[in-house]
């Protein structure tokens, strides 16, 4: 199993993770994948569950930036509605844009975590940028684009193998 594919922590959904987890690890900023991490592909307006989660994290003093491979009106509108910053065209699994973002914003990599539902894009990009990563389950895989479907063909067996080897560490074990 390649190190670059292994997330630092695992959660079924970011919605279940409490701010204590991030505080405990000294994490001050989250780079959030949008599609199927914050909300499903078909959602253009943030759902009440996501709004509540964002409010809870912000109230705990955690900075949030959406880092999406996607772009276009939907992403901008979605982030504007949520009141959080967004960085688009992030070219995950490559990490150069994540590294650039950290540098531009003078963020200490030790205090940043990238959270996403895909090993092939999110975990690889975050690990490549030298920050910690959290892998989640996708919220709803029924309306995904072809490229994501293909990624899932590689993602699923990797996930299964990691779980078997005990490499998917549930976030609660860090509390
Ligand atoms: Mg995603």
- State the major sheet: 6 strands, parallel
Query: Within the largest sheet, what's the order of strands?
Result: 1-6-5-2-3-4
Helix content: 25-40%
CATH class: Alpha Beta
Question: Count of helices?
Answer: 6
Rounded to the nearest angstrom, the radius of gyration is: 15 Å
End-to-end span in angstroms? 26 Å
Report the structural category.
Answer: alpha/beta
Q: Briefly note the CATH topology name.
A: Rossmann fold
Beta content comes to 5-15%
Low-confidence stretches: none
Chemical compounds bound to the protein:
magnesium ion
What is the strand tally?
Answer: 6
Q: In total, how many domains does the architecture comprise? A: 1
Give the overall silhouette. globular
**Looking at this structure, what is the CATH superfamily?**
HAD superfamily/HAD-like
Tell me which CATH architecture applies here: 3-Layer(aba) Sandwich
What is the average per-residue confidence, as pLDDT, rounded to a whole number? 96
In sequence order, what are the helices and strands, one letter per element? Answer: EHEHEHEHEHEH
